């Protein structure tokens, strides 16, 4: 077991620092402090990060860390930690690792015995979710669907019966095709399309999938789709109910166990009783 007390560590740390998704004013005071105190900053794109640092008058060594150079950048980061340096990792926008590669870095740093600390900040998925008008009680963040329609549809088919709100990211040049696939696979359910979040042209389009498709032509900016979950009641899994009855039979009579399980699932206790007998 690994137990990390983030604020009791006096040695080198790897910080995961979220950056603004559009509005520079959403850089938090703590995130700025971490960047100012870090010995070096690992960035997805050093040019974009340099603009952010210039805006806040932060002067720190920058080096590149992204999907296609991880074989060299991860050892470089671990080497710096071994030298006692604290490293901040940033992506172009939002949280590092969210719809960006990076889990390999976190795992490697933890395996090397160094703490990894995340800093709070901007997140497009949560921004879109809480303002969508759809349920935020339970939700699934899926990220990007496949860019090929055939594979995208297969992904959506696995989610068709999912009962909770779902969040997807999408690029502007694919948004229309993705919405068409969503309509054909998930049906004309309620969604919210949020674009250009925190920027001057921020916009939320709320309505049915077909309504949003009609308004999606020519839209620009990074997109977040928030889709309502399925409201179709799923048939109970009989095998699962039978197994639950068997477990309850260790402490109660079979009829009582059948009644309890059937009531929980809204299932006929007589039918369930026969199913249990069949499987004895």
From TrEMBL:
PANTHER family assigned: RIBOSOMAL RNA SMALL SUBUNIT METHYLTRANSFERASE I
InterPro entries: 4pyrrol_Mease, 4pyrrol_Methylase_sf, 4pyrrole_Mease_sub1, 4pyrrole_Mease_sub2, rRNA_ssu_MeTfrase_I, RsmI_HTH, SAM_MeTrfase_RsmI_CS
Start and end residues of each RsmI HTH domain: 245-280
Enzyme kind, highest EC tier: transferase
Recorded family membership: Belongs to the methyltransferase superfamily. RsmI family.
Catalytic activities: cytidine(1402) in 16S rRNA + S-adenosyl-L-methionine = 2'-O-methylcytidine(1402) in 16S rRNA + S-adenosyl-L-homocysteine + H(+)
Keyword Acyltransferase in record: no
Keyword field: Cytoplasm, Methyltransferase, rRNA processing, S-adenosyl-L-methionine, Transferase
Pfam families with a match to the protein in the record: RsmI_C, TP_methylase
Lineage per the UniProt record: Bacteria, Bacillati, Bacillota, Erysipelotrichia, Erysipelotrichales
Species whose genome carries this gene: Catenisphaera adipataccumulans
Chain's role: Catalyzes the 2'-O-methylation of the ribose of cytidine 1402 (C1402) in 16S rRNA.
Name under which the protein is recorded: Ribosomal RNA small subunit methyltransferase I
The keyword rRNA processing is assigned to this record: yes
EC number: 2.1.1.198
GO molecular function, one term: rRNA (cytosine-2'-O-)-methyltransferase activity
Gene that this sequence comes from: rsmI
Origin superkingdom: Bacteria
GO cellular component, one term: cytoplasm
Subcellular location: Cytoplasm
The Tetrapyrrole methylase domain, residue ranges: 14-212
